[in-house]
Amino acid sequence: MRIGRAAGVTDTGRRRLRNEDAFICEPPLFAVADGMGGARAGEVAARLAAAALEEAGTQTRGEQGVTAMIVEANRRIWERALADPATAGMGTTVTAALVDTDSGTVAIGHVGDSRAYLLRDGALEQLTTDHSLVAELVSSGVLTPEEAERHPQRSAITRALGTEPTVEVEVLTIAGQPGDLFLLCSDGLPTMLSDGKVAAALEAAERDPATAGEALVVAANAQGGEDNITVVLFELAEGESPAVEPMPAERPPPEPEPELAPDSELEAEMLEPEASEASLSRHGAGPGGRAAALVFILASLVIGALVLYWGITR
Ligand code: MG
């Protein structure tokens, strides 16, 4: 088994001013986090979670691995909230999928109401159960699933990352099959689109993760885009994963964590042109260009000296 195509996309939606979702699409790790909290604290929480997961991503496996990375993310957000009163009470959801290509399994861990789905043989199945008020009311028979979809408290979650010193992570393992298409998403997708519409969009995109991701965001926005929308899609395919992963030529530096600043400063910060170390170094001459420049300078010096010598001796 190997991981085939994968893509992640996030969008602010049409009602929110900021995007407080974060995602990871770094095979074999995929994750979605949906932050909450005043000011930009939700964004801080979601990004802290993504950073903690990303750090642990390549070293761990299975349910234990995915649980450990989410527990570590919880610890970091909790400690940051204690140290920084501006972020007190911040939290985030997280849904993470860690693929083990050797065993062909996908370990999924989650806290909150971001979801994991699996499209297999044309049928879309929700793999995770929301840790939300309405999900509990549905399971106890108080609400029907249809009533839950329209419930005013539908975004109230009963479990979050970073709001308590410890967290209970729900985990499950899926035995993967070639052709499986996994979808991780924040609640901004299912609150706007029914599972049927999501499945139809995936099929219409011919199960291509990048095309499907864009189509889902467009469709959720067309339905109102009331929340941030984040989707991460990856497929499993036949065959072996490459023994040697191609090394990325240059890795951009990690995105800086957002500072909790007043809005005016914020806007200024956002208007700054993005110039990463990587893009800057690509704009330079490079080692080959530098050698050519050196030869040119030396040649100029020699010619200059000759002209000077000729001028003096003449
Ligand atoms: Mg949300």
Short description, anyone?
The chain is of the alpha+beta class and 314 residues long. The chain is 38% helix and 22% strand.
Walk me through the topology.
Elements: E1 2-11, E2 21-26, E3 29-36, H1 41-56, H2 62-83, E4 91-92, E5 94-100, E6 105-111, E7 115-120, E8 123-126, H3 133-139, H4 145-150, E9 170-175, E10 181-185, H5 195-204, H6 209-222, E11 229-237, H7 263-271, H8 277-283, H9 286-313
Antiparallel strand pairs: 1-11, 2-3, 3-4, 3-5, 5-6, 6-9, 7-8, 7-10, 10-11
Helix pairs in contact: 1-2, 5-6
The structure holds magnesium ion.
What does this structure look like?
The protein is of the alpha+beta class and 314 residues long. The chain folds into two domains: 238 residues, 4-Layer Sandwich (Phosphatase 2c, domain 1), CATH 3.60.40; 33 residues. It is built from nine helices and eleven strands. The strands form two sheets. Strands 2, 3, 4, 5, 6 and 9 form a six-stranded antiparallel β-sheet that branches. Strands 1-11-10-7-8 form a five-stranded antiparallel β-sheet, with helices on one face. Helix 1 packs antiparallel against helix 2 and helix 5 packs across helix 6. It starts with a strand and ends with a helix. The site of magnesium ion has 6 residues, from loops.
